[in-house]
Write a structure and sequence with these properties.
Length: about 130
């Protein structure tokens, strides 16, 4: 499978769908994505191939770590991210796959910031803050 930015300059090839898809409702993900939440599919970074140039933005997390997002310097689309608490994993923006059949989130975090009209499937794990 391939995830890519709007202009196609930055892409990530994955071995297939991920079993770890996480929806995040924190204010940072809302601002980063321009939507009520962000959704990343997580993979070990050694199974991914990144093609193209990315610009990195790093921010602190509430737990004292860092969260890095990587976006296309041409069109600005976020394509992948890395959390310092999981340094060998990359989260690929689910929207970058452009695949409506991609698996639903298995975890929903920072639900204290969730918009009241958003509904994440009941089978997912639900956390008011980040998962410890």
């Amino acid at each position: 499978m391939e995830a890519k930015c709007q202009c196609g300059q930055l892409a990530v090839t994955t071995p297939g769908p991920s079993s770890t898809v996480v929806a995040c409702h924190c204010s940072y993900c809302q601002r980063r994505s321009g939507s009520p939440f962000g959704v990343f599919a997580y993979y070990p970074d050694d199974v991914l191939a990144i093609i193209g140039e990315a610009t990195k933005y790093e921010r602190p997390t509430e737990t004292g770590g860092t969260f890095e997002t990587f976006f296309c310097p041409v069109c600005g689309s976020t394509v992948y991210a890395r959390a310092s608490k999981h340094p060998t994993m990359l989260g690929i923006a689910v929207g970058a796959f452009n695949d409506a059949s991609f698996p639903a989130p298995v975890r929903s975090v920072w639900e204290q910031g969730k918009h009241h009209w958003v509904s994440i499937p009941g089978h997912a794990q639900h956390f008011p803050k980040g998962r410890s």
